[in-house]
Amino acid sequence: MRILIADDQIRVRQALRVLLAQQPGLRVVGEAADGEELLAQVGVKAADLALVDWELPGLVEAGGLPALRCLCPALQVVVLSSRPDVRSAAQSAGVDAFVSKGDPPESLLTALGRCSAMVKLGGTDVTPE
Where are the domains of the chain? Predict the structure, then answer.
């Protein structure tokens, strides 16, 4: 599964890259530090999944998650946030999974596993955490 990481904090992107590099079948194909960069890369990088910080700068201004779906309808979107209280808003926005940045890495890997299964099946709906 090809993954695009979108977070404004370089340390978060680096940590995610290291974690994902250790997992068979997962490959990071790009990184974005803001919404504009994410939208520019999503079509070019042919990602299967985007790991997106819920509070990514410029994402709202760039059209947000609907713009991602418009550019790449089959893209799986997993939202990461340090604010567990935004889970409902993320689910309402149609994300495929939500993971709190405070959760153990296994929570993210479980969500990615569910999304990977959907990518293989060609679907777009994964029950959010």
Answer: 2-121
2-121 maps to CATH 3.90.1150.10: no
pLDDT (tens digit per residue) in 52-95: 999 899 886 556 788 888 888 889 999 999 988 888 888 888 88
First to last CA, the chain: 20
The one-character DSSP state at 74 is: T
Q: Is the model's pLDDT at 117 over the cut of 80?
A: no
Alpha carbon distance 118, 16 (integer Å): 21
Type of residue found at 24? P
Provide the 3-class DSSP secondary structure of residue 80: strand
The pLDDT, as a whole number, for residue 62 is: 56
Q: In the chain, where does DSSP find H-type helix?
A: 10-21, 35-44, 64-71, 87-92, 105-121
